[in-house]
Backbone:
């Protein structure tokens, strides 16, 4: 059961998923694919989600530190264990394989690269935190009345299942996605601040994006 008040929290994420699905069929140059995502998803954030988007940060050091820690967790398995991501748990017909969706043409286009980096570090954290930490736990607790549930409210079951669902979004990286989901849920429970979660998530994604560009490990993108 959804209500009109749910729309600002879920519309950007829904459009984000739709564009992920249809982008391969549009046959656009990478820069135009990235620009389209910014236009559609960013437009939804500005036009629809702005009334609920509170980006005030209460715990700057903690949020930045958590973001860096989640980045470290994200890449450590692959650094510590050769071939870790090629194991059957992470490369199969269900979760997919660690392959980049950002092709060679985009990697050689500075504008496409900048738009992709910016999307990961700025737009995606807003879109995902609106949905995963801002809306979903509260909606599961009170379907149709999520706005009445304070931010950061979890039951043990909701805490776990939302982290699992967040992990499922990350394909071959589901195990680090699960740890990230648990960490972000904990931080939302502690801070009750959407702004702090957006900052932490943005730091993680910015660090990961810088690592990808610097090292050529495009599979993370």
Residues:
């Amino acid at each position: 059961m959804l209500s009109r008040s749910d729309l600002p929290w879920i519309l950007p994420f829904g459009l984000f998923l739709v564009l992920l699905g249809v982008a391969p069929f549009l046959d656009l140059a990478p820069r135009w694919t990235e620009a389209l995502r910014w236009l559609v998803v960013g437009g939804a954030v500005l036009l629809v989600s702005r009334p609920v988007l509170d980006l005030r940060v209460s715990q700057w050091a903690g949020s930045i530190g958590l973001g860096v820690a989640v980045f470290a967790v994200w890449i450590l398995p692959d650094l510590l264990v050769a071939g870790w991501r090629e194991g059957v748990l992470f490369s199969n017909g269900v979760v997919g394989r660690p392959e980049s969706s950002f092709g060679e043409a985009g990697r050689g286009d500075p504008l496409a690269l900048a738009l992709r980096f910016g999307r990961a570090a700025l737009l995606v954290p807003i879109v995902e935190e609106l949905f995963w930490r801002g809306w979903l736990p509260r909606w599961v607790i009170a379907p149709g009345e999520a706005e009445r549930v304070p931010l950061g409210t979890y039951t043990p079951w909701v805490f776990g299942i939302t982290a699992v669902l967040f992990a499922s979004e990350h394909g071959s990286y589901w195990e680090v996605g699960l740890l990230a989901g648990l960490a972000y849920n904990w931080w939302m429970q502690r801070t009750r601040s959407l702004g702090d979660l957006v900052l932490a998530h943005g730091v993680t994604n910015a660090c990961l994006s810088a690592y990808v560009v610097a090292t050529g490990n495009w599979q993370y993108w």
Notes: The chain has a mean pLDDT of 96.
